[in-house]
Write a structure and sequence with these properties.
CATH class: Alpha Beta
Helix content: 40-55%
Number of strands: 9
Strand content: 5-15%
Strand order of the largest sheet: 5-4-3-6-7-9-8
CATH architecture: 3-Layer(aba) Sandwich
Order of helices and strands: HHHHHEEHEHEHEEHEHHEHHEHHHH
CATH superfamily: Vaccinia Virus protein VP39
Structural class: alpha/beta
Largest sheet: 7 strands, mixed
Radius of gyration: 19 Å
Distance between the termini: 16 Å
Shape: globular
Length: 348
């Protein structure tokens, strides 16, 4: 698909990536493509490329959370579908469950949201800016059903590129859930006063009027907000906002409790070095229980893990010695994966 530079939706990192748009349409076109897309290079690069070490550490943390362990069987039920390259074995109560590092990130986001805003988020509207392939929606539904025992779908609405719609719908419906789609350029959906809005990076990839429109029409009407952002690398250099600008705009618009939370207490170690967590509307500003701790503890945990790849061991050691070098190595790893599986993707 050729990118229309006049399309406001193309004024974002993934929106301007024609390979991403084409891959989303291809993955959503058939059940055969859906069964393999998570290993395609463009999905590894943009979504499924969460480093294994991040998943290993999150698994250690989340296993101490009873909401997560109660949800494990449901979350893992369809995890191998889509053929993700990187699955982590998680032993619990004489069973072994397999989850990808990306799915563990989604699980962590959900449990963070519960800790910050309470279980009432499951009873109200949830709006997601940038739905990826539908993984976040699926995991939130998994955890909601597991801990509330209510057999109903979340009221979940995704705002994303039109090219992503078919894939997100197929992925969510494959897991027996439902999802709605909205557009700020079509008939606007009513945002309820008690809704939660979540963005796992997408809002900070925007700029120009697209960012202004999402901020005004979706973010401001919501009661709760949870944003993992990368403004300094994905928006500001292209004329967009910085984290400080985003935070100041929220406060000026009446979100007086908007703040940046310490990433190392809420996110994985690999995320905390690159991303910022901005929230508003929290009931409790304390970090969630069973947090990972400081990087020294990360190193102790990771040293107990048995890595199957020398490359992974090298990346992990380097990341703890120098976080900036770790970021560089992570980027190189993704490039290697992209090249390795490019031929596979082109055959799809």
């Amino acid at each position: 698909m050729k990118v229309n530079i006049n399309d406001p939706m193309a004024r974002s990192v993934t929106g301007s990536d024609s390979e991403w748009r084409d891959a989303c349409e291809a993955a959503g076109s058939s059940i055969q493509s859906l069964s393999q897309f998570r290993r395609w290079p463009v999905f590894v690069f943009h979504v499924e490329g969460t480093p294994r070490i991040g998943g290993e550490l999150l698994a250690q943390r989340l296993l101490r959370n009873p909401m997560f362990t109660k949800s494990l069987p449901t979350i893992s039920k369809t995890e191998e579908f889509g053929s993700p390259l990187n699955l982590i074995s998680i032993p619990f109560e004489s069973k072994t469950f397999k989850l990808s590092p990306t799915t563990l990130r989604y699980s962590n986001n959900c449990l963070n949201a519960i800790a910050l805003f309470g279980l009432q988020i499951f009873q109200n509207q949830i709006i997601e800016i940038g739905g990826g392939y539908g993984g976040e929606c699926k995991v939130f539904n998994d955890i909601s059903r597991s801990i509330t025992k209510e057999d109903k779908d979340l009221n979940w609405t995704v705002y994303d590129l039109p090219s992503s719609t078919a894939l997100i719908r197929k992925w969510v419906e494959f897991s027996s859930y439902k999802v709605q789609f909205g557009s700020i350029y079509a008939e606007p959906k009513k945002i309820s006063h008690d809704s939660m809005i979540i963005s796992n990076g997408a809002i900070s990839e925007m700029r120009d009027e697209l960012l202004e429109d999402y901020f005004t029409n979706l973010i401001l009407p919501a009661k709760y907000g949870y944003f993992i952002t990368n403004f300094e690398t994905h928006s500001s250099p292209y004329g967009g906002w910085t984290t400080e600008m985003f935070l100041n705009r929220l406060i000026a618009a009446g979100k007086k409790d908007a703040k940046v939370l310490p990433s190392h207490k809420y996110l994985s170690f690999t995320d905390s070095g690159n991303s910022t967590l901005v929230v508003f509307g929290m009931d409790d500003q304390r970090p969630p229980k069973n947090r990972l701790g400081d990087p020294i503890r990360y190193k102790a945990i990771s040293s107990s893990q048995q890595m199957t790849s020398r490359l992974e061991k090298w990346i992990i050691k380097a990341a703890f010695l120098d976080s900036s070098l770790g970021v560089l190595l992570e980027f190189l790893e993704r490039i290697l994966l992209r090249d390795k599986y490019r031929k596979l993707y082109k055959r799809k």
